Amino acid sequence: MHDSWVVKKKTAENNLPLVSRPNEKTVVRVGDVPIGGSGAVVMAGPCSVESREQVSSTAVAVKAAGAVILRGGAYKPRTSPYDFQGLGVEGLKLLREAGDLSGMPIVTEVMSEEDVEIVADHADMLQVGARNMQNFSLLKKLAKTNRPILLKRGPSATVKEWLAAAEYILHGGNESVVLCERGIKTFDNSLRNTLDLAAVALVKEMTHLPVVVDPSHATGKRSIIGKCAKAAIAVGADGVIVEVHPRPEDAWSDGAQSLTFIDFLGMMEELAVPVRPVFAAV
Ligand code: PEP
Ligand code: MN
Questions:
Q1: Which of 190, 195, 144 is nearest to 170 (CA)?
Q2: Looking at ligand 1, which residue's alpha carbon is closest to its atom 1?
Q3: What is the DSSP string of 67-123?
């Protein structure tokens, strides 16, 4: 029997020993950006990389407004096979170029085991998409890379399953994991998903790993993304990741939830204002 399996079996009350350690705090470095330190970080960029002009102009605009990490998808997990699937390697190159141009590290999704090497060659941080959270062979392969991982919560995953997915990566040798709450499926279909901010507060008490929130996929609704980002930080998130597009109405994916440059600037201004004081009775 495998030794480490026996060790885990013995710690029955805590079968996620590597992610637990609630009294410690891990700071994950993406390029020179610390996630999990004293300041919340803002990651921003288009849902999909579409063209040089689109991703570079977005990078420059979000950096100027205060973003510190550039996001953008080159391999897209789409519900329909007829939807845009991403530019692949060409998208990785354009994202890298935009990151270098604006002076930001980049995060992008890796969808399959076979793409891990090429994505790790181009990107500073590798994203595991919500639909892949329990792709255990992908998680095991990512554990062997020297890149930090952004692990999205599956749309129907419990907190324990989410942490167990992170445990796979830590157990395999990669301690640089950032958890990302991006909304879950519930009975309510008034928004794209249900943003589970209570889980963020809870997970912050359960793990030493940083936790960030994606209010774009959680809501699917541009007008409330800034407010949800602010609530996420108020509840203890170490940062947010949001979608921004120069012309959301023309976006090849997720236009309805993409902020314009002006919207993004508004969100950053709103994040800088303290949460209002509670009325105090005299
Ligand atoms: C994305 O970040 O563009 C994405 C597809 O996210 P998720 O996996 O959370 O749906
Ligand atoms: Mn998207």
A1: 144
A2: 47
A3: --EEE-BSS---SSTTS----THHHHHHHHHHHHHHT--EEEE--SGGGHHHHHHH-
Instruction: Give the pLDDT confidence of 142-161 residue by residue, as tens digits.
Output: 999 999 999 999 999 999 99
| Residue pair 271/229 in contact by the 8 Å Cβ criterion | yes
113-127, pLDDT tens digit by residue? 999 999 999 999 999
pLDDT at residue 1, as a whole number: 45
> Which residue's CA lies nearest to atom 6 of ligand 1?
129
Name residues whose C-beta falls within 8 Å of residue 156's C-beta, 6 or more positions apart in sequence.
184, 185
- What is the per-residue pLDDT for 198? 98
**185-229 pLDDT, tens digit each:** 999 999 999 999 999 999 999 999 999 999 999 999 999 999 999
Cα separation, 10 vs 32, in Å, equals: 39
Amino acid occupying residue 104: M
Label the pairing between strands 33-35 and 28-30: antiparallel
Look up residue 38 and give its amino acid: S
For ligand 1, atom 10, the nearest C-alpha belongs to 130
Nearest CA to ligand 1 atom 4: 129
CA distance 76 to 110: 9
Neighbours of ion ligand 2 (CB under 5 A): 47, 254
Cβ < 6 A, ligand 1 pocket: 47, 73, 77, 129-131, 152, 182, 214, 217
Closest ligand 1 atom, residue 129 Cα: 8
